[in-house]
Fold these 3 entries.
Entry 1:
Amino acid sequence: MPIKLDWRFTLLDDIAQVRLKVLLDFARQAEGQFDDAMKAWNEEVTGLTEEQEEMMGDYLIERRDNIESLLDRGYTLGILGLYTFLERFLNEVVGHLRTGGASILPSKKGFNLYQLRTHLQSVGIDMGAAPFDWNELNKFREVRNCIAHTNAWVTDDFAVRLNRFGIQVKLDTELKLPERFFPDCWTLVNDTYQLVFKKAWEQFGYGKQHELWLRPTRPFTDKEIRAILDQAIKEGVAAREKHMELLREEAQRDGQQDEDSCGWAWLEIDPALLKRIHQLDIPNISTSYDTTAIVEDFKLHLKAVSDYQRMSASIRGIEAAATVLEKHGINSTMESMAD
């Protein structure tokens, strides 16, 4: 059974953007308060005599340390918020995949980062491979764990774990985050969530579901394709003519001129089948297949059925042709455009 994600999954992206902006705004606010506090500190120490500096030295140093520690605390809280967001987002993704048909058992407490990587990998989203940066995610996880589990105090265990990722720390001291660690982690989390969302939607969203739905239920020989299209054209022309007759009767009854809107109608079909039909070069049939360009629209034009000056009648004819194709295991969607 294929995995299917519906419109509710797309809401995760909107919610994620809001939450990440809040976290970024929080960090910028902390930076702004730090800049204001440092400006006030610099104004206070400017112009002091040597005697005053000597007398107030300890106080000024302690005050500066307190100002810097407030910024550090703001960043550590930001790290906790970023990591919480990432785990919650990935758990939401896994939940949608499970609801959509993935064989993932639920967890009352939620999955941790390693478990989430395993579950996503089971559906073809490998966070351990490029363009994901699993090493940086793991380093981010260890820093968060030190903040959350020991209040940012470097124990024996965390000294080993953090040094392993190139973060130089001293045992039995407070963890000092590397320069630009928060903004770098924000970018890492932002990139990671977008990659997971994009890959999941590309593989299991409406586009992929439509692609799978369009695939024929069985293979066809060239002879079969010609015969099916011939039948589709005949029934399509008959349906168009029948509708045109109804329009003429209505116009005559109402004392009006026989008119119809102008435009085009066609069928969208499986890209591989469209290529086959293009190569067969069947009279009165054209396609949007182009070997010289990247084609996103896979149009099958039944020129004998579609009449530019009789758009509504042509639509009835194309719909009848689509019914014939469906009977033979070829799904399609009818598209039209008025002129």
Entry 2:
Amino acid sequence: MLVKKIVAVAALGCALLASQAFAYETGEYSKEALRRGDDKPVVVKDYPVVAIEDVVASPQLYTEKLIAVQGPIRYFVTGNIYEMQAENGTRLRANFGRYSRRLLFRTPFTAIGVMRKDAQGDYLLVKKVIWRDVNPYKEYFDAQNRTRPMDGDGNKKVVNDRDPAFFHDPIVSDNKRFLQNNPKAFSPADLASYQTIEGKSFADGNLEVGTKVALMGRNIRTIKPDWMQFWDKNMTPVTLKMNNTYCPLGQRGTFFGTVQEENGKKYVSVDYFESIENWPQPPIAGAN
């Protein structure tokens, strides 16, 4: 008795799988089709193929016999209702029922159904769907077959627009635990004379030449050799003269330096750098 029940359950499972497989008939790609970039809907032999424009123009002609309508889904309406769209922009509402949410947006497929009418107007009641996965190699083969223009001399020119800091030699740190450049061998007592400021204090132009400041933030680009543009936490720019110290682009840290002036423009000449933001000294009086 138990064996008969197991056989019956297995038979039922096979029947369900078969019905599901029948509902989704897929077309296989050949290598040549992949090379052509053939992503059109599969050919339908058992049902008349009717263009979306014709269905929308005369829906009353397609209320009895099943027809095949080809195209991708373009818009979601509500529930199981979607809109298919022809190349000329004509839209057709379609109720996909149990097939809704299973079709990929813009995937070419063929919907088999009949026309029905509701309060919103005519729509296609889908009974069956035949679909094919989008060709994953189409862009690749398109690129392979595309002609590539050459320069007048027949040679390609490589232009490197990366920041020069990307090609800097690996940093040599003066500290084993974190990045540090200390060319003047400063002690913590020496650094205590540098006052923490924000970029706005420097941008306002109120800091006198010779003022010792500490800026927390990161370098974002190279201005010219040994000169960097710095951003604080508010992305306020400050010009730094690095004096052969080095901080990788984007590395947050504290830059200790002295305000200097050249050609009427102020900058911070870096004396010391470390990749730690732990200098909460009070700001310079009147600088903010």
Entry 3:
Amino acid sequence: MPAAIVVTVLTLATFTLPSFAQSEGTNETLQNAGESANQTGENMQQGANKTGEAIQGNASEMGSKITEGAKNLAENIGEKLQDLAK
């Protein structure tokens, strides 16, 4: 009977301990993957923010140029109308 107990203990130890070790390794791998995904998400958000800021700056500059162009056009039309009136 004691031999059967020893065999049972050895069998359980053989199959159970590697399972725990594998589980721990799997948890670490999953944790690393989660951290990597978080870092990727943060980098994407920062990139999107920078892109948005650049677009906003370019749109503002373009709007100023359009306004200036429209002002010049109105001024030229006004001058031409005054010339016609003379």
